[in-house]
């Protein structure tokens, strides 16, 4: 999922006009050594913090269907994560860097969600919104100064960017549907005489003579005669 978010951001910034201006979009760590090797105008989108959003965790499982409408798998609900980036611009002069950073800021603040046409892989398959929040409002992540200190570089103007994206759940393949009827095989049992012949059940029509227990004729007992009113019982 992380690399798919990276690709969506790269496509978004590229479409904003950076590619036409000859600006490269990279996701490298802006260390001192990296800055020394840089030669072209560059926008660096550095991922430095990943945290789950527990308020959006779901339960249960959803069904996955094939082209024929049959259930082929069951998938646990996606889990949402916040990806925090440090966006910086690199050029020969500070004025050029500020111009690049302003162009990036204008693109990101006007984008609430990554357009579906920019999504790839599992993000495209899930069809869920990928939120984009630029400016660092309410971000619970390490401060930019701490990030620069950890990278061993000099502090530069930077833009905080937070992306909330779903991580696809785990799919479990279900058993194939039943396509044949039920078949019952009987096993012969030893008869009462012990001769090994299969035991058979006999059916006798109602009213015909037969052995006891196999449908012999049975007569209903006659109901007692009803006494008239005022008649004494003998």
From TrEMBL:
Biased amino acid composition, Basic residues: 223-234
The protein's name in its UniProt record: Pvc16 N-terminal domain-containing protein
Pvc16 N-terminal domain location: 4-179
Taxonomic source organism: Streptomyces virginiae
Domain of life, per lineage: Bacteria
Region (Disordered): 183-234
